[in-house]
């Protein structure tokens, strides 16, 4: 297995590659394919890498009683839950139309397969990767079927325990080496106290050979940006054109201005992460020349004097002298010329030290 792999054609994730940003349209399209297209274009214009939907074959995802139960929520699109879901579900032909549009726009197109038959359709559709929703993270027959198909997988982990996620990792790993696990808490909208970003670090320790990511349902963008700073290599956020629209997910979704700012902030944080190697950088040289300190003489020191610590001080000096971190190396060495009080002690003034230099 590897810490980086190709999630979509020509797009690597993990390692030093940019964070892969998924704009989760889900069912925020209101069941209107033209709105769905507008949202795909919005995701592209805002800088996201992928526009993602949720595909269900309703008779395979829900049993009859679940579909027949009354649904009286203010968010309902029908008298029963089945009527509601049918209103929001696009047909196979509509999915092909949306996929074609996404290709024209120039953005990856994907969907969560919400049941085994939906996975079969998405495989036929040739999506770049399979997204596993949190509700299927502990559905091990589904995970095995999906993993065996060989496409990269993005697995959300809401509502699961670490013990379950260890089993998820082992199950998928047996059949598929290219997958990522996303820390997720399944609440809409999500309170900051329940985000649990530290799980990202725990996943990185538990599963050190796969990229780790974050799927967020909180308000705003700050927490998602923090997840990227902690090493998330894939992030997913629900998006909407209007938070006041009917639907449970809109309140926890980002409008276009917020998605644009999220992408901008993530790319800024990536630039700021650096290499992890601590050293003086070229951009610091001017400051070092102006304010860097040197060893100076606290008293006048005649030529031939053996230096002791009480003779030495540290100041911003002109000319630049021995670095303060090397001051201990001067003790016990003789000066080769007179040093005036408050004068810089340069390497050439000290016997042996200069030769070593």
From TrEMBL:
Residues 294-353 form the AFP-like domain. Its EC number is 2.5.1.57. It is found in: Secreted. GO terms for molecular function: N-acylneuraminate-9-phosphate synthase activity. Its main location: secreted. GO terms for cellular component: extracellular region. Pfam families: NeuB (PF03102), SAF (PF08666). It is an enzyme of class 2 (transferase). CDD domains: SAF_NeuB_like (cd11615). It comes from the Eukaryota. InterPro entries: AFP_Neu5c_C_sf, Aldolase_TIM, Antifreeze_III, PseI-like, PseI/NeuA/B-like_N, SAF, SAF_AFP_Neu5Ac, SAF_PseI/NeuA/NeuB. GO terms for biological process: carbohydrate biosynthetic process; carbohydrate derivative biosynthetic process; N-acetylneuraminate metabolic process. It catalyses: aldehydo-N-acetyl-D-mannosamine 6-phosphate + phosphoenolpyruvate + H2O = N-acetylneuraminate 9-phosphate + phosphate. Keywords: Antifreeze protein, Secreted, Transferase. Contributes to protect fish blood from freezing at subzero sea water temperatures. Lowers the blood freezing point. Binds to nascent ice crystals and prevents further growth. Belongs to the type-III AFP family. This is N-acetylneuraminate-9-phosphate synthase. The lineage of its organism: Eukaryota, Metazoa, Chordata, Craniata, Vertebrata. The gene is LOC110497424.
């Amino acid at each position: 297995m590897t810490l980086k792999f190709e999630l979509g054609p020509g797009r690597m994730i993990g390692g030093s590659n940019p964070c892969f940003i998924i704009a989760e349209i889900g069912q925020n399209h209101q069941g209107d394919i033209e709105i769905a297209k507008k949202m795909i274009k919005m995701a592209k214009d805002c800088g996201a890498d992928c526009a993602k939907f949720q595909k269900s074959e309703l008779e395979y995802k829900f049993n009859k009683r679940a579909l027949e139960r009354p649904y009286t929520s203010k968010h309902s699109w029908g008298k029963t839950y089945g009527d509601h879901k049918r209103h929001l579900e696009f047909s196979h032909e509509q999915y092909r139309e949306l996929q074609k549009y996404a290709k024209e726009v120039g953005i990856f197109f994907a969907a969560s397969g919400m049941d085994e038959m939906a996975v079969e359709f998405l495989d036929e559709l040739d999506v770049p990767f399979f997204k596993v929703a949190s509700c299927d993270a502990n559905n091990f027959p589904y995970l095995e079927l999906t993993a065996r198909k060989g496409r990269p997988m993005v697995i959300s982990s809401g509502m699961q325990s670490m013990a379950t996620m260890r089993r998820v990792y082992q199950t998928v790993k047996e059949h598929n080496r290219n997958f990522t696990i996303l820390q997720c808490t399944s609440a809409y909208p999500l309170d900051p106290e329940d985000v649990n970003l530290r799980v990202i670090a725990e996943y990185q320790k538990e599963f050190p050979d796969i990229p780790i990511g974050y799927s967020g349902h909180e308000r705003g963008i700050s927490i998602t940006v923090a997840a990227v700073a902690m090493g998330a290599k894939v992030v997913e956020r629900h998006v909407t054109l209007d938070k006041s629209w009917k639907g449970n997910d809109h309140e926890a979704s980002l409008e276009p201005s917020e998605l644009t700012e999220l992408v901008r902030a993530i790319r800024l944080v990536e630039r700021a992460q650096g290499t992890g190697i601590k050293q003086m950088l070229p951009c610091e040289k001017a400051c070092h020349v102006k304010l860097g300190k040197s060893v100076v003489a606290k008293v006048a020191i005649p030529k031939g004097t053996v230096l002791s610590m009480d003779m030495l001080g540290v100041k911003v000096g002109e000319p630049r002298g021995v670095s303060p971190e090397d001051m201990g190396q001067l003790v016990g060495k003789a000066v080769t010329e007179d040093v005036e009080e408050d004068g810089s002690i340069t390497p050439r003034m000290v016997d042996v030290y200069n030769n070593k230099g």
